[in-house]
Specification:
- This protein has helices spanning 3-25, 33-59, 64-88.
- It is an all-alpha fold.
- It is elongated, with a radius of gyration of 15 Å.
- The mean pLDDT is 86.
Length: 93
């Protein structure tokens, strides 16, 4: 498996685990709030991945493959975050 694919899968799993833990820790929540948590965690991790990718690209050509993985992961997570948050808040209806 390529490095970019591993980075994408690891970051997506982290987003799901964070949203599950945040959802479980709250009391008196509705099931639709899980998607809000998932969207917000995807957006947060996506923005963090974007910063990491920029730093890796600045660091030099030895880190380009890892930087590409983080940049691709950032795009996927930000897109997923906007889609999930928009759909769960009723904006996309």
């Amino acid at each position: 498996m390529k490095l970019a694919t591993k980075i994408i899968l690891i970051n997506a799993a982290i987003a799901v685990v964070i949203s599950l833990l945040s959802f479980i820790s709250e009391s008196h929540v509705q099931s639709s709030e899980f998607f809000v948590w998932l969207g917000l965690s995807c957006l947060g991790i996506g923005l963090l991945d974007l910063v990491i990718a920029i730093i890796l690209f600045i660091a030099g050509p030895t880190n380009y493959n890892t930087g590409k993985g983080f940049l691709l992961s950032s795009g996927i997570l930000i897109l997923t975050g906007f889609a999930v948050c928009g759909g769960s808040l009723g904006i996309m209806r």
